[in-house]
Amino acid sequence: MGGSVRKATYFSESGGSWRWGSPAGNLSVFRVRWPESPRSVAFGGRGLLRSEWLKLINGSLRLHAGLATRRLSAARKPSLCRSKLPSDSSSKTGKSSAGSTVTSRSGKPESLSASLLKRTKISGSTLTVTIAGMVGLLAGVGAVIFTWLIELVSSNTVEAALSLAADNRVWLLTLIVIPAFGLLAVSWFTRRYAPEAQGHGVPEVITAVARHDGVVRPHVALVKILASGFCIGTGGSIGREGPIVQIGSALGSTAGQWLNLPPRSVKVLVAAGAAAGISATFNAPLAGVMFASEIILGSFAVESLTPIVIASVLANVVQEHIGEHRREPAFQQLYYDFAGAWQQLPSYLVLGLLAGLAAAGFIKVLYRTEDLTEKWLPSWWHRALLLGALVGLAGMLYPIAPPQLSDATKEHIAAEHPRIPPLMGVGYGVVDHALHLDTPRKAEESESLAETTREQSGKFTSQAASKTVMVSGSQLWSELWWLLPLVLLKPLMTSLTLAGGGSGGVFAPSLYLGATLGACVGLLANIWFPAYSNSPGVYAIVGMGAVVAGTTHGVLSAILIVYEMTDNYQVILPIMAAAGVASLISRSIEPESIYYKKLSRRGGSIARGHDLHRLDHIMVRDVMIRGFPSVTHDANVHEIVRVARENPHIESLPVMCDGKLIGIIRPSDLHRVLDSDISPHLVNAEDIAMRSPISVSPAENLIEALRDFGTQDVETLPVEVGVGPQRRLIGLLQRNDVMRRYRQEILAKH
Known about the structure:
Shape: elongated
Number of helices: 28
Radius of gyration: 35 Å
Strand content: 5-15%
Strand order of the largest sheet: 10-11-12-13
Helix content: 55-70%
Distance between the termini: 73 Å
Structural class: alpha+beta
């Protein structure tokens, strides 16, 4: 070839022969002699036109000539194996060797994670689990820093004002100013640096996982810590769980982005960060795993559980060493029992009903307040100042101390530690008070259980009962009148804080609402039906789980988180019963959870894996087409077109031979023949049919059918019964029919 290759570019016809050669004519490879008269040439039992021969040979020659050219070009290039790369070769990619991109042997940029996998011989799942562990450690430290920041801000603002007010009541007026300027500062800060850090955080994490491949901007973690810490510390009536979920998720997303991990792994790391945040904040590792899977990912896939579990465990280990709760539950010294008391079950079911109504009401109040304030106060800084002042005013006017105090609370006040107003901040002081309400008659049983627990665990001292708030007689009514207004005011204060531009969560307000509502129900039950009721504190525990289940629509997460926060397994059955009822009632009134409601108000809803499971009870036989057309294997294109036109609702036609299915003809198969120059009379059904298509059984559900649709990317699946020679076609399942049924199920849900 003389070291050069010339592409074959044309055919020339001369006296019935065709020549392949170069434009100069000096390279003759072969000749093809054509018959003089026939229009087509026999080839493989079929007739092909001259034009088709020309297309076939031209395409083949171009292919071979192109391959030869590429081989020669490749031979002329120096081999990367023989020529060493320079030491600064990584600069060709535009990034230094310390960055997240390296150069592969082919000269293309390669992600740091891919390079890591090649060098260390570890699998992608192992790398994800390792990074998830690091995210868990960082999220645990982040939770500790976040809690410290809240306490620091609170001690220098709200608590300082209360300390000064002990000597001069005029200082109480500063409680109006502090939340107002706190909201103003937080609103400006988030609007300036990270608008997604405003609000309660969890919907933004769900959106990142569902729509943006788990991408959360790295600086969101820092902005969220500062904004939420300052907002809660200055008296904002919101929780700290939503922020720590967003902080942990931002850490996980940043790690995945920095290592250029695939989107699936980044999403898992986001969920792992969320689980770590819940675990470290509540000292609830199981609840963290469940929350991340049920709420954030919407999936309990096995491959995602291991990284989530590892992150949750390591975050909790950090919490046990340097966290707020250490090895104790969030709410300590709760010794209650249910003991399968049938007579108490009706009161728990009633509480579940009321909790469902309260949860739906909380969701509606939250977003209705946001709409009204934006309409009446268009300016963001006007909203921040006015709504913050309203929160401070309510905190100043409402009685700070409940009618009855526990011994532990009296010691706390005697040590000159100011008590935060019940409508300001997270509100765990009120929750703890409600959980420890007890009556003298039932306190004897609780004390007996407490002694047994102390002996078995050895964790608590003899002072464990000092948190108990003993109420009886008229004290039951006084406690009721102190708690009942909080049931109505707390959701409103949380709504005002968030509408004013605050940054914080709605999980703690849900716990607050549940505890106060449950305590009120328990107090009334002890007043009216003392023989058929339990301690008021038990109803507060049950109410927490019920309201959380109603607002988040995450029943399992609610049950586990309340159990781990109280460390009281003896009342798990009432919690489960009330949570189930509350979720049912709340869904019937407000189909979307408090998180998904925010997403739908932005103009779109997110379908999660659990939505797809609405198809697992619908069988193929319920959707398939029973009366269907078919064509024989020897039918020509004219016959196929005629049958297709008579049945426009059928996407694909089955091809039969002796009563057995041999394939299906898809619209693309038929269009390919019609768009060609081949005569329709020369093509049979078996020539264009897709052989051996995947078939489904009428007893399969639609989830299994959807999997089979994706296997071969077809629009129609044959439905067959029998095995071997007895196998026969009984129907057709079309993708559009399955999707139509899915839409009907989703609409029925709403």
